[in-house]
Amino acid sequence: MQIATFSPSSKPDENLLKKAILNLESRGIKVELSPNLLGRRGLDVSSDKERFNDFKWAFFESRSTILIPSRGGYGLSRILDEIVKLNFAKVKKTLIGFSDLTFVLNFLSVFENFDIFHGPMLATNFFAGGDELFHYLEKVVNKVSYEIRWEGYSSGGRFSGKIYGGNLTCFSFLVNTNFLPHIQDFILFLEEYNEEEYRVDRMLHFLKYSGIFREVKGVIVGFSDVGYDVYINFFRKNKIPFSTNFPGGHGKMNLPFPIGRVCEFDADRNVLRVHFER
Questions:
Q1: Contact call for residues 204 and 234 (beta carbons, < 8 A)
Q2: pTM, whole model, 2 decimals?
Q3: Quick one: which of 91, 110, 250 has its CA closest to 180?
Q4: pLDDT at 129
């Protein structure tokens, strides 16, 4: 297995990145590094050029078909207008990421030639390793169907549909823009980190007023460092089926699942079943 890593958002911690690469290589996974992996990532035009060049390298120049960014952070939203100009029609890649990558995970999911997954990144997750994370990575790469089970509060119900979403803040900013595909009858995934409870509540209400929840079959809530009461209260009040505590996002465990692909969400048992037929 070979993956390419790049930095389209923030600059990664160099020590954590080195640990991740060693961890991957110890398991027989080759890591292809972008030429500008550790370049500067600020809030200026030159930084945006470096982000965009790194992104373009991964999709159009790297030899690897599996792309996993070094980390998320901030900055990908600054180059979305350049990304959408790229011709992705003949590119066949698997992209895995989360956090700031939410902006492109949803946008790129409309391309049939891509496999898009919300999941772990190098300096964020793979520096510590863990057999479970690599177990699911192998499933994704080899396109073997799998299921994820977890313990959490659930309103119950069983649903089948494509999954969209990601980081709550990033997804909220995608709504009513050209960067979010037309989505309906879907399962929504949300996770959040380092936000106040009242801000989470405000974003959930914004999504409601935007009309998003009229198209949602059920909601899977991943990591939340403010707890789950704000989500439970909101979804109960609005009679939206949901489940909490999914092992995805900024928490200790960040298991991969597809964006824009039909999955089965069993909220009665807290099970997500991933298949590779579109």
A1: yes
A2: 0.96
A3: 110
A4: 66
